[in-house]
Every structure is written in structure tokens, then in C-alpha cells.
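Researcher: I've been going back and forth with a colleague about how Valine--tRNA ligase might be arranged in three dimensions. Neither of us has a model we trust, so I'd like an independent prediction. The organism is Thermodesulfobacterium geofontis, in case that matters for your notes. Sequence below.
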Amino acid sequence: MEAEILEKSYDPKRVEEKWYKIWEEKGYFEPTYDKTKPKFSIVIPPPNVTGALHIGHALNNTLQDVLVRYKRMDGYDVLWVPGTDHAGIATQNVVEKELAKEGLTRYDLGREAFLKRVWEWKALYGGKIISQLKKLGASCSWSYERFTMDEGLSRAVREVFVRLWEEGLIYKGDYIINWCPRCETALADLEVEFESVAGKLWYIKYPLEDGSNYIVVATTRPETMLGDTAVAVHPEDKRYRALIGKNIKLPLIGRIIPIIADKIVDPEFGTGAVKVTPAHDFTDFEIAKRHKLPFVKVIDEKGKMTEEAGKYVGLDRFEARKKVIEDLKKEGLLEKEKDYQLVLGHCYRCNTVIEPLLSKQWFVSTKPLAQPAISAVEYGFIKFIPENWVNLYFDWMRNIRDWCISRQIWWGHRIPVWYCSSCGETIVSREENVDICPFCGSKELKRDEDVLDTWFSSALWPFSTLGWPEKTEALKTFYPTSVLVTSFDIIFFWVARMIMMGIHFTGQIPFKNVYIHALVRDEKGQKMSKSRGNVIDPLEMIEKYGTDALRFTLIALAAQGRDIKLSEARIEGFRHFINKIWNAARFVLMNLKDYIPDKKDLNFEELPLFSKWILSELQKTIKITREKLEEFEFDQSAMQVYHFFWDKFCDWYLEISKIYLKDPNYRKSTQKVLLEVLKNSLKLLHPFIPFITEEIWQYLPERETEHIIIAKYPLYEEKFVDEIAEKWVKILQELIVGIRSIKAEYNLTTKTDLVVTFRSSDKEVLDFIKNQKEPIKFLAKISDIELRSNYEKKKGEVSVVLQEGEIFINLEGLIDVEKEIKRLEKEKEKIEKKLVQIEKKLKNKEFLEKAPREIVEKEKNSYNDLKERLNKIIHYLSDLK
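Model: Here is an independent structure prediction for Valine--tRNA ligase. You can compare it with whatever you and your colleague have in mind.
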């Protein structure tokens, strides 16, 4: 059978779209519900419907796809649920910006018409990221695609809300929340981005009620003093012990407020006396509850001062700050101000400074939900990989606060609550619409204006996407899911909430493993951002280098617990590997022109040495690759196959096969070995680089399946492991590399008429090398190798010491010895100077402490490399002299 020949070079654009379309049409991505197969399932972390594929998505989805393709090939029935999140605030902002171009606001349209516009926008642009995921090669089960606001998921959201209400775990109440005056909505704690900014610390005199003295309070937000209801000191602070219980007169307002003692006060901050503004500070809110203080709200939802702020009413909060400071100065109540570095919270969407605000909101009481979720991880039912992320999870969960689930926007799941104007009752319903009050029959109903936090629907994702609350076949078959792949920044946002909701509503954990992948940074370790201009666009990289090159780069760099330092040069580097695979496959196929397939197994014992060795190395690679994939060590599994294919198969076996293919005794078995190794290598590589592996697969003369995507992942077979062959090939490789290094050092790489002498005291080694002379001569590009048990170095000879002996090459007449000595001495001098410089750095305590870790490591590696090179030069100089 004549094998087809691959084109000279690999063109990813030609094959990627073709194969993805075929895989999808053939239904390979869909689960089979075959009861005999083990099950594997993943839910995709749903990207925002507003989103476009960024490098974080590319990493996250590539890692999931590696697992999915591996498990599918390994005989599992696989379900990978894709979908998108409605992304409440983000999507509403996008549509509002579009309206602004028309000179309109959402209020001009009204709620119903505005939501119609959002759905229209979603229909036009919401699928963009899905098509980009397909471009990445993500083999999702697309018939299961979900959207957090589709009919089924909306029903699940209402069901969960009502059940939690019935259980007394949802309530509405006044609470201090993060408020964005620009978006006019509450924000979850983790939706607030904190940054250090230069500010001021103002020291204000608060006069005692009797006028005898004053107490000085330090604050970074003087405008909020208008809402103070106490001043607090630490109970053990001797400076203020006598003042505890006395009253003071609030400057500018005149309200009489008490001095109280509370252990939460830090005596080291400012003067040790702090103002208590319960309606505008999280800590003060807790103090007020403990001491039963009143709540005075002086800033409203638009960031303007309320009537409670007296003469400052209507001013923007920052304008009010300036006016308050001016007035304090006029009244002689501002003692001093000083520069102060403070940490300010900003809205994660619009970057507005958030305002802690007392507000009536809907909350989930989380402590009863948190305990089972903590236990599930404590007892190992759910594992975090890497394990150190468990500590962050426990820290958040053991200090959990009630979850504010209401948002003051229009796009999202509207809270299923109605208020009856006639009887005053609150109606909480599973129905989409309620028209009549079940308590009094009135039609005078008003629905709650708020929508649910986007993360509320996302928290149900592992079971709502499978049809819950219905007991669907998908839910019975694929829940709990096998693994969740996500990033550390949403462990609490999403992972913890899924665990809480999953256990509470299904009685089972939502997933068994949580793999936390690293962040992708630039090559210097900096966070990627448009303002820095260091963003790497995955779609541009795919266009330039192909999907497989980008995927393999991300996987190869995805070491557990370490951020990825990505550069375009790295992607380009791995593109060379993709080309190497193509060229190797082309070589194999070109040498199969007269290959006749037969069903007989290889007679392992009759194979030549290097054929035994490559098959043995293949088995070790299969074993380690599988182990590393099971342990989520993506980088190590990928690099295991990379080094096998490039370093062993291409650099050694393909070269030696050129001799074996010419030998009639070995030609057929060598063809079979070449095909066997290529076929298994393609299967090992398919989960990482699906497109090129499928393209080459189609050219193989023997393949057990039409497409590689459904081929069996290679299994480890111990019968092909030959440690003796490995031992002898290692000796040969060391010998050949030794000869090559001398030739390279003295610029003799094109010289093929060299005679090399090899000395060894081990007769077995000499006999073995005698039988392997042809491969040595061919691979080392020499004319002959003489074997000696005793040999004295002659004048003009250089040598390399090996583990099993020593190589000698006579350079007389081949090089100008004096010139060579000068060259090496010059290089030696240069290296010695460089070593002194690096040594100085590495002995400098300040450098070791202050320099980035990677810079220190780089210097240490340079030092070791230079030291090794110096030792070689000293040895060569000794030979030449």
C-alpha cells in the first residue's frame, strides 16, 4: 500500500476550520449516554455575553479541552456544557452606551422597551465569544449550550429564590453595602477593586458638650462626619478613659453624640479616637449595632448630600468635602492635615469610587449554607489543585458575611417578589408573572424593581444547566461534574457559591476537583493591560501562528501554582515544534511507499537496538503523560511528549532509521516501528494540538478509527519496556554527542574523514561498540572509530571523558593550534571576568533581597552555565598545550 505524501509545509489556516466543522457534524462532541462507559463532565465557566476571547479565556478553555479530549479518547462518555453569562452590569452598560449615541437613556425608553433592546443586542453580538471558542478548538457539547437567562435557567433561579425564602434564608433588610453612584447599584465585596492612592488625613476637633475641652478625631473622609452618631476609643486607651460616656457636640451640625468604647478601635491610627458614621462605613455599621446607635444617611444613591447633611444638601460628595474643610478651618476646628496613602475601592465596571451606603437590599443568610460547603472540602469530597488554594477558600468561608443579592439595574433575573397595595402582603412566587394577590384577590400588585446579582444564577450553573429542578437524564448521568477549571480570583465569587448551592439543592457536591490555573502575564511578569500596551490577543496569535501553536504554548507554560509569562516569541518557538511534527510525519510517510500492512505484532526480540529503544521510550512517555494528566500537571504531560518526539524520535530514531531502512533485514520492521511511534505520538499529542494531529492522521496507511478524535488514547504496555536497550543506547548517545562536541568546538562539523579512538577498560562496552560501528559513523559523521583497552594520548590529540571511557581525536593538520589556543584563552578571560561580576551580584545581600526572583534565578543559571563552559575550555587548552 502506498502512503500519501504530505505537502511540503503545514498551513494551519487550511485545516483548522475544515476539521472543526467535520468533528461537529459527526457529533463527536456530544455525549452518548452509553451505560457501559465511565462518565466525565465539565461545565464551562460561562464567559460574559459581552465578551471577546482574551488570553485568560484561551488558557482556561484550552486546559478544559485537553481534559475533555483525553477522557473522550480514553473511553469515557463526555459532556462539556458550554454557555454564556448575561453579565448584568456589563451588558447594561454596553447597551446604555449605544443608546447614548442616539441621545437617549434607558429611562427615555422605559423598562420593557430597554430590555427589548438588550435582547436584540444579545441576538446580534452575544454569540461572538462562542464562535471564538470554536476557533480555539474547544470541543464543547454544543447542543447543551445554555445562557443564564434562558427559560430553563430562569425557572431554576426562581425555584432557588423561593425555596430559600421559604426556608427563611432570604430576607430584605437595611445593611451597609458597596454602592456605585455611577452604575446606581449595589456591588458585591469582590466586585470592588482596591487601589492605593495618595490622600489626606484631616485632624478635626470635636468639642465636648460642656465646652471644657475637645477630642481630636482623624479622618480621610471629612464629608461623612455630618452623619456621625458617636466617637469611639479603645476601652484600654489611658488617654481617653476619663472621656468615655461623655457627650460631644458634632462640628458644623451641632448634634449631641456620645464618646463610646469599642475594642475594634486601633489606638495607633490617627489620634486613637475615631468618628462613627454607621450609614457610610462597614466597621462603623457593626459598632452602631453593638452600641444601639442611630443611623444617619448623609450621602444618597447618586453620590449627593441628603437633607440630613444640613446646609450641604445637594452637593456632590467630593464638593461637600472641600466645603466642609473650608468651614472647619473658619471655625478653628481643623487642627491639621497631612499626606496619607489610603486604599480606595472602585467599581470594577466603571472605576467610580464606591460609596459604602446604608441601603434596603435582599440578602441570603450564608452561614447555614457555608458549613456543609466547608465540610465537603475538609473531608476531601472536593479537592483543590494546587492544594494551597484551600486556605483561601476556608478563610473566606469561615468569615462569610450575608450575601447581598439585589442589584438596582434592569437587565437580569428580576426578583420574583410582588407587593400588594390593598392588603400590604409580600408575594414570593415561582411563576414568571403574578396578576392577583393570593391573600386578598386584589390586582393592585407592584413587582420589586431590583434584579438578582449575576453570580446568583451562576451559582446554580453545574445543576441548572443539566435541567434541574427536573430530574433529567443529563442530571442523573453527569452530576456531580468531574472537575471545574477556573482562576483564583473567583474562588469566592463563584466556586464557593456553587459548592454551597449545589450541596443545598441537590444534596451532592457540584464537582469533585477544582483546578485553579495561573494568571497569564507578559514576559516580564507584569499583568497584561491595554494601557501598558502588553496585551497578547489570542485571535491575532492564531491568525499568525495557528491554533495548535498557541494552545501548546499555553499548556507548556501552565505549571501548577506559577503565573505564566507569555511572549509572542514563545508562541513562535512552539510553532517550530508544530512544523517539526509535520516534517517528521512527512519523512515517515515518504518511507512507507512500499509498506505492506499486516496484522502480525512486531517481534520485539528481533528488532535492532534503536527500534527496541524507541518503543521502550514510547511506553515510558505514555505512562508519565497519563499520570501527569490525571494529576492536572498539564505542562509536564505536554513537555513529556514534546521531549520524546523531538529529542528522541526526531533527533535520534529518524536519523538511525535511515540506516535500518536500507537494510533488507530491517526495512519492514523499521517501517512498522516508524508508523507505530508516529501513530501513538499523534494520539498522545491530540488533546494538546488537535488540528495538526487530525490532519496527519488522515494520511496514515493503518488507522483504527476514521478520525483521531475518537481513537483510543495509548495505554502503557510493559512488554515493550527494555531497560537493557535503554542502557546501551545511552552509552552510544554519550559517545556520539562527545564526538560531535569536539567537532563543533573546533569547527570540524563538515569534516567526515575523521578517525576517532575510543578507550575503555570495559570489554563488554568495547564489544558492544564494535557491533554498533555503522550507526556511530553515520550519526557522528566520521570515517571510523578505533577501539582500545589501553591507549596513551598523543601529541595534537584532544579528548572528552565519558562515563564508560574516553574519546580521542587527532587535530594535527586540521586546525592552527596556536590560533586555537589564543581563541580559547581570549574566551576564558572573558568568561572569568563575567563570573567575577555575577559572583559579586550573588554575594550582594541587597540584590538577593530586592531583585525579582526570576532575575536572581537567571543570574544563578548564567553563573552555572559559564562555569561549565570554563571547565570545558580549561580541559581543551590543557589538550592543545
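Researcher: What would you highlight for our discussion?
Model: I'd start with this: The longest helix spans residues 853-880. After that, consider the following. The chain has four domains: 31-158+460-517, 185-356, 542-721, 736-880.
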